[in-house]
From TrEMBL, chain A:
It comes from Chaetorhynchus papuensis. Coiled coil: none annotated. GO terms for cellular component: glutamyl-tRNA(Gln) amidotransferase complex; mitochondrion. Keywords: Transferase. The lineage of its organism: Eukaryota, Metazoa, Chordata, Craniata, Vertebrata. GO terms for molecular function: transferase activity. The gene is Gatc. GO terms for biological process: glutaminyl-tRNAGln biosynthesis via transamidation; mitochondrial translation; regulation of translational fidelity. The keyword Transferase applies. This is GATC amidotransferase.
From TrEMBL, chain B:
Keywords: ATP-binding, Ligase, Mitochondrion, Nucleotide-binding, Protein biosynthesis, Transferase. The lineage of its organism: Eukaryota, Metazoa, Chordata, Craniata, Vertebrata. Pfam families: Amidase. One of its GO terms (molecular function) is ATP binding. This is GATA amidotransferase. The keyword ATP-binding applies. It comes from the Eukaryota. The gene is Qrsl1. GO terms for biological process: glutaminyl-tRNAGln biosynthesis via transamidation; mitochondrial translation. PANTHER family: GLUTAMYL-TRNA(GLN) AMIDOTRANSFERASE SUBUNIT A, MITOCHONDRIAL, TRANSAMIDASE. Residues 28-147, 169-489 form the Amidase domain. GO terms for cellular component: glutamyl-tRNA(Gln) amidotransferase complex; mitochondrion.
Amino acid sequence: QKVSVEVLDHLEHLALVDFRDSEGVERLQKAIQFADQLHEVNTDGVEPMDSVLEDRWCLYLREDDVTEGNCTKDLLENAREKVEEYFVAPPGTDFLTKV
Amino acid sequence: AVLKGRLRSQVSAALKEGQVTPTELCQRCLALIKSTKFLNAYITVAEETALKQAEESEERYKRGQPLGILDGIPIAVKDNFNTAGIETTCASNMLKGYISPYNATVVQKLLDQGAVLLGKTNLDEFAMGSGSTDGVFGPVRNPWSYSKQYKEKSVPKSHSEDEESNWVITGGSSGGSAAAVSSFTCFAALGSDTGGSTRNPAAHCGVVGLKPTYGLISRHGLIPLVNSMDVPGILTRCVDDAAVLLGSLAGHDPKDSTTVQDDFKPFELPNLTDVSQLAIGIPKEYNAPGLSSEILALWSKAADLFKNAGAKVVEVSLPHTCYSIVCYHVLCTAEVASNMARFDGLEYGHRSDKKDSTESMYAATRREGFNDVVRGRILSGNYFLLKQNYEKYFVKAQKVRRLIANDFVEVFRSGVDILLTPTTLSDAAPYTEFIQEDNRTRSAQDDVLTQAANMAGLPAISVPTALSERGLPVGLQFIGRSFQEKQLLTVAKWFEKQVQFPMIQLEEVKRHDDGVFQHQKSASFS
């Protein structure tokens, strides 16, 4: 089963990595083929596992108290384009732009 | 000689008694890093800050107030851990020049105990790979390539060709850390382990590689690959040292909500003499396709070692082992697709000059910043996460994961304490041979023995066992019960003592200006 052009377009938009050379598409096909082996396994009645720590209930919500912050300057340090305390992005999005 | 010592019993004592100072130790390590530059183990060497840390440590020793065993000890950190003020690149163009404003929790813990941070070690780009060959700073060379033991066994084609074409890989993805420890440039190094990335290079480089239980050590500041499987890894020259590092790193971190809240008590390892109470499990599925006959024999010999010492040794079965690589492939790429989404050029890292639109800037940034391996995984991951594929692939893989984890639960429930398996399929391959297969194929092959432990979140350790026919290290792996690191390490230490793995005899390699390596026979490091 080949991956359809619609799916490829959709993937490119979602993943935002280009792979339109035949090598990229082939690599994807191989990855899917490899993953298809999963369907040999009988998983009837098996619950999906999100975390190996599921028995320990360790994921928790802490109190909504401010414990750190005031580091705007540090955080902006690594951004290439900024204006005052804003990160600057090019205007608009264009779903059909070919990169 | 102190460079070869054990932390608790030898180095710490030497520092306390003033036989060696932290500054001397630091300088010696820095000099060694320079003279082993051809290994390409380090991406960044933080010479100034390291010397400053060493000086501060020295002051504390003078006052008789060292912070602990790690005070003044030179260590290295894999370059996917955030280090404040020191570049963190993940061996990728995406993060070249990135200077983090904070330390990863594990880095902070080491610094708080006076450890001296020598630098950041090389890896596969974003920790994706099993060779440490796919980073933008080039591949890491296994120090054993330059050992007397390897050279004696290899047939040189011609004198100059010998050096250039014969060197072997470190394994990966924490190859830089493994090489750094193996070549004595530091006493311990941090790696990361998602599918075997600490244990694999440990086995190839003849050092101890510990993967702790998931949830024991904080991942805060470790640039994530697979949130449900990543752990910081520990690389040292002996099991005792791994226990020291573990003691200083483990424990709940409020900044990482996936760390368990149980109290962790650091421990010293007892000198086990009686193994008759131990039950060792030998999972038959780990006699995997491609396992070299040499390693199979070593594994068998190790099992006999335990048997002859009175331990109960039984064959066990982990029936879903053969699916763990496929399961990992889906879960890993899916989580990677999600985790790599943060790299868009806006807040940090590389940013493309393309300005047409936000999306085109993002896409160009990611094309320019990531290598093929990373992009390939992002793509596959996004495919498996598509609405029409989510149940079929991602959820399916999560179900298979439970089956894999349950296999271990069953085996441990049946009375087995520790599992004994090989760590790798063979000894380290020559670089020229390794790169003939692509990254995904290699990872799929090489991870098969290590990555089920990540699936199940279990602690596992690779212990250097013997040299292969080619004179290269082979390690064997012990897998333990969740949070039973003390038992795991105690058994590993006993085994280490039995096998008496030989010390690497590094020969100096002098490089002439015309770039031709000239092998120089000299006294081995002493």
